[in-house]
Amino acid sequence: MDVGHQPIIHPGRVMGRFFFRLAGSRLGRYVVSMSALDRQRHLLSIAPMMDWTDRHCRVFLRLLSRHVLLYSEMLPVDALIIGGAFHLLSRREEEGAVVAQLGGVHPERLADGARRVEDAGFVEVNLNAGCPSHRVQQAGIGACLMKTPLVAARAVASMKRAVSIPVTVKHRIGVDTVDAESQLVQFVAALADAGCDGFIVHARLAHLRGLNPKQNRQCPALRPDIVYRLKARFPHLHIELNGGIHDLEEAARHLAHLDGVMIGRAAYRNPFLLAGADRAIFGDFSRPTPSRVDVLRKLIDYGERLAAEGEPIWHLARHLLGLFHGRPGARRWRRFLSEHPHRMAASARLLQESLRLAETLEATP
């Protein structure tokens, strides 16, 4: 049997078949979950990041890698269902495979949101159970869900019933606790019981009091060892690691122990690291590694379409600031993009001029 389609198992057999159930779960049912995840696709993904991973960013990143799995920003389900902000689900064919992340807690609204995500063409829907921001806490969503695993499980079960695409959850190793592993195991067990198809674990605690979101991304210690032990405890669950991963070499080391790796801000600061992902992570040698100039040439057509629609070119150009990260001329590149877009308004001429600069910088040894 292909490991990608094996049932979730828990030590012990019942009538010759593997079953899994959270002891004492009020869900009151046994579940054998057959994961529908494309496991090859999940080897490497880019984290959902507010104000960053919009559709323009995703078009850009897709030109760097054909295989890396991309995520939307977190989409508040109340904004979709109650506020009617369906424009948040807009996407373009050039983005390829994209997962939509929803933030919410009400099972019926999340189910409705998941249906709309599927209708919009996203390949999966992900529930945010890791964001510790004050605004998210006030709504009782994000990392707050880790404190109420059965509430989170009901949300996942409702989403699973509503859609045919996979439902995954992104979460922390724990929230406001000194016993992170116990909390983590209970949370993951409850969601697995509800049919969750995959778990993306940010290997830090979330502190809901005393730390702001930036501090919550930096101050709590990284504990990938806890995620490794989680995988060892639940070997047939799909478990990915997020947090503090800076390059493909580091990602590959973690993949020796886990099912996938998610890179966050490192990929935004230095997006060109993804240019080597198709070969190094996915084993696809069918095309040359793209150069920065190659990517910009392909973006010009997209930029011209944005300009024709009246959208400011800065909405795309801002995602290109890190393209020459660590290379000679990186500061010159950032200054050029930062100073020109507002003068050029919706004009695609910025990308044409940036291409000429990129050709100069790429030729610099």
Draw up the topology in text.
Layout: E1 13-14, E2 17-18, E3 44-46, H1 55-64, E4 70-76, H2 77-81, E5 98-103, H3 107-119, E6 124-129, H4 134-138, H5 149-162, E7 167-175, H6 180-193, E8 198-206, H7 213-218, H8 224-233, E9 239-242, H9 248-255, E10 260-263, H10 265-269, H11 277-280, H12 292-308, H13 314-317, H14 330-339, H15 341-344, H16 349-362
Parallel strand pairs: 3-10, 4-5, 5-6, 6-7, 7-8, 8-9, 9-10
Antiparallel strand pairs: 1-2
Short structural description:
The protein is of the alpha/beta class and 365 residues long. Helix content is 39%, strand content 14%. The protein has 2 domains: 36-280, Aldolase class I (TIM Barrel), CATH 3.20.20; 292-362, Four Helix Bundle (Hemerythrin (Met), subunit A) (Up-down Bundle), CATH 1.20.120.
Protein described:
With 365 residues, the protein is an alpha/beta fold. The chain has two domains: 36-280, Aldolase class I (TIM Barrel), CATH 3.20.20.70; 292-362, Four Helix Bundle (Hemerythrin (Met), subunit A) (Up-down Bundle), CATH 1.20.120. It is 39% helix and 14% strand. It has helices at 55-64, 77-81, 107-119, 134-138, 149-162, 180-193, 213-218, 224-233, 248-255, 265-269, 277-280, 292-308, 314-317, 330-339, 341-344, 349-362, and strands spanning 13-14, 17-18, 44-46, 70-76, 98-103, 124-129, 167-175, 198-206, 239-242, 260-263. An eight-stranded parallel β-sheet has the order 3-10-9-8-7-6-5-4. Strands 1-2 form a two-stranded antiparallel sheet. Helix 3 runs parallel beside helix 5 and helix 14 (330-339) runs antiparallel to helix 16. The longest helix is centred in the last third of the chain and has 17 residues, at 292-308. It starts with 12 loop residues before the first strand and ends with a helix. The model is unreliable at 1-35 (pLDDT under 50).
